[in-house]
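Let us practice reading a record.
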Amino acid sequence: MAEPAAGRDRRHPVVRRREREAGGPRDLRIKVSYNDDEMTVVRAAADRENTALASWVGTAALAVATETVVPVSADAKDVLKEVLRSRAQLRRAGNNVNQIARVLNSEGEVSDAQLRSAIAALETAVRRVDEATLQLMRERRPRS
């Protein structure tokens, strides 16, 4: 028996398709147009999820339409990351203030340097959260 050609024995990964809906067959169609750059981005997203292109577009459109997923710009993602970092810093600074209060309530001593350091960390964290919140508010799109 002859050996298969070198290129024929490669197997392509199976591409996932959208699951069938209980509501019946999907027979309504729309046409979506992209330029070359946009198509490259959409194809890359579908490839990342190992999903057929039309399936990925349909699933993404339904997720946005049903508000299962809210589209977020890359800038907003960075702002959200900053909010999460700031919240963690606020937690740590709040913990420091609680430790200082515990010491003061038990008639212990807290140095001026310790108090200044805790307050400075708290002020920095609050400022970062304020800045990130304002940025998110500026980018927020009104729902119509």
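A brief commentary: The mean pLDDT is 79.
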